[in-house]
Amino acid sequence: MPEAYIVSALRTAGGRRNGLLSGWHPVDLGAALVDGLVAQTGADPARIDDVIFGCVGQVGEQAGNVARNVVLASSLPESVPGTSIDRQCGSSQQSLHFAAQAVMSGSMDMVIAGGVESMTRVPMGSPVTLAKKADLGTYMSPNIRERYPDVAMFSQFMGAEMIARKYNLERDALDAFALESHQRAQKATDAGAFADEILAVDSRDIDGNSHGAHTADEGIRGDATLESIGSVKLLAEDGRITAANASQICDGASGVMVVNEAGLKRLGVEPLARIHHMSVMGHDPVIMLEAPLPATEQALKKTGLSIDDIDLFEVNEAFAPVPLAWLATTGADPERMNVNGGAIALGHPLGASGTKLMTTLVHALRQRGGRYGLQTMCEGGGMANVTIIERL
Questions:
Q1: Set 89, 214, 250, 363: catalytic member
Q2: pLDDT at position 131, please?
Q3: What distance, in Å, lies between the first and last C-alpha atoms of the chain?
């Protein structure tokens, strides 16, 4: 069977809500990312077999099959198709899985997988909120309510609080983890660790004004302290989660080009990494965010690898309890996880986060000389994708 290789991996620097990417239409931002991948590899645009893009808020500017619209806004010809994926926060990680499966099957040779989310222009939860306003009902169907009679609505915030309590993670531990995320991200930025992975785009504020090239993640707080993080109010009166120890709302796009041996030969480039393993698991939708823990165990069992065989980990920092519980369960070395910071500092642009984390993982492995990297992230509805790559 053919292998699946990553030959290019790029992301935009994250933009805060109403920040330096808020003036971009998400379709055009995704198109800029696609054009960047094509330019970096020297690929013939007409030879791209498909564009698979993740996006969670598929409404408004992100409606109507955002992936196809990205193609039409890019340098790719009309003959290149596009399809949009919603596996919640794992949407573009699933896009990568589908792309890899396509080239491994031999039905395609060159696929772009990525994602885009403008959380400024399409606020989080817009599909549900707009449906509620229009009295179009809710996803909590009668059958779901019968199966989960004690749950009014599945909630990631409630799930994060449940994980914090289940794994005895007090607020001070969550805040300390959040501070380290900012410190690592600032250190990586200062050292130029993100230089090869960030696609420079024009910064545009919400009024469309340009502020030069956008090349640095806007959400990093290099001056953060435990005191400043600890001063942020709790989201629930008796809770442990705050906006400071949870991921930042973020605008951004990311993507990778995935090819098989035929695609490598056509491009004449050296691969960055090989896809070693892909899996996805469903789990309890009430605690919801715990799925990466058993999913990682399953992935390691399937591959015959131990946790110590993995050189670097990217575990999405949707909420601080998630990676902390993951560390406690897997026994992984915390010095190998999210080495350049995570979503608490860098932002979590929902549908773009999967290939955003993969882009950082690919480049961090190359910089540090590691062999294997593992990526996982919690997903709405109680799911988790796991991807293991081998640096080449």
A1: 89
A2: 86
A3: 19
